[in-house]
């Protein structure tokens, strides 16, 4: 579920996804609009916003949507960014929530949707509207340790290296094609909180970097394999 670039004919061997026209940074209105989905403290959102403070950063957060009241909403409001809370508990079934979330995000016409600590699986309506243009950051080296407890499971398994992964989002749990990864060594005296904090530090650097690359270069995907265009 990707958008073919208008300037190139489809290639039977590669599927090219252009999430936005190339951006050069500079003025706010010249940047690629992105919407961030969040559920928690907003530390990744803060990292994206801090990156966007740079004059040459090619993307701008135009909206933040959460599935519950959370600190991420407060972070966005403090920066004057439009916010919305679309809570599943406010709807009679998941399909209605899916449509409402899709509408809340689509209103901003984003070039890219970023799930930053968003603790929900996206529905079919949302994926149909934005598929191929959604990225997520996960605190483990996928495909190992997907899901909400990736840090704990990596620690319990006894791995010596874990890390952070930025990947395209599909209809599974952390199963989309991988775009970038960064390793984090596991120290002998690590507990879950200590290890997670170090991984978060890596995520805060990696995710804004990958967002900038995506909106300027686009993504090439071929089945399970995906990469930022050179």
Automatic annotation (TrEMBL):
Record keywords: Purine biosynthesis, Transferase
Domain of life: Bacteria
Span list, region Disordered: 1-30
Family of the protein in this entry: Belongs to the GART family.
Gene3D superfamilies according to UniProt: Formyl transferase, N-terminal domain
Residues annotated for (6R)-10-formyltetrahydrofolate binding in this entry: 94, 119-122, 136
Pathway membership: Purine metabolism; IMP biosynthesis via de novo pathway; N(2)-formyl-N(1)-(5-phospho-D-ribosyl)glycinamide from N(1)-(5-phospho-D-ribosyl)glycinamide (10-formyl THF route): step 1/1
Domain Formyl transferase N-terminal: 34-211
Protein source organism: Gordonia jinhuaensis
Location of the active site: 138 (proton donor)
CDD domains associated with the record: FMT_core_GART
Annotated protein name in UniProt: Phosphoribosylglycinamide formyltransferase
Cellular component terms per the entry's GO annotation: cytosol
Coiled coil: none
SUPFAM superfamilies reported for this sequence: Formyltransferase (SSF53328)
The UniProt record lists the keyword Transferase: yes
GO molecular function per UniProt: phosphoribosylglycinamide formyltransferase activity
Reaction catalyzed: N(1)-(5-phospho-beta-D-ribosyl)glycinamide + (6R)-10-formyltetrahydrofolate = N(2)-formyl-N(1)-(5-phospho-beta-D-ribosyl)glycinamide + (6S)-5,6,7,8-tetrahydrofolate + H(+)
């Amino acid at each position: 579920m990707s958008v073919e670039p208008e300037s190139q004919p489809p290639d039977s061997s590669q599927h090219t996804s252009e999430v936005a026209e190339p951006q050069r940074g500079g003025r706010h209105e010249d940047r690629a609009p992105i919407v961030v989905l969040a559920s928690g403290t907003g530390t990744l959102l803060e990292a994206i916003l801090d990156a966007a403070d740079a004059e040459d950063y090619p993307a701008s957060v135009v909206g933040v949507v959460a599935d519950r009241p959370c600190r991420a909403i407060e972070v966005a409001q403090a920066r004057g960014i439009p916010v919305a809370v679309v809570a599943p508990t406010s709807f009679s079934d998941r399909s209605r929530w899916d449509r409402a979330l899709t509408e809340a995000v689509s209103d901003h016409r984003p070039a890219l949707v970023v799930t930053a600590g968003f603790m929900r699986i996206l529905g079919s309506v949302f994926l149909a509207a934005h598929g191929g243009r959604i990225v997520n950051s996960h605190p483990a080296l996928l495909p190992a340790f997907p899901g909400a407890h990736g840090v704990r499971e990596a620690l319990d398994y006894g791995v010596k290296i874990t890390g952070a992964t930025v990947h395209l989002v599909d209809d599974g749990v952390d199963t989309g094609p991988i775009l970038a990864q960064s390793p984090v060594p596991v120290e002998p005296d690590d507990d879950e909180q200590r290890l997670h904090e170090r991984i978060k530090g890596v995520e805060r650097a990696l995710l804004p970097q990958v967002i900038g690359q995506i909106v300027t270069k686009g993504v090439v995907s071929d089945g399970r394999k995906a990469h930022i265009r050179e």
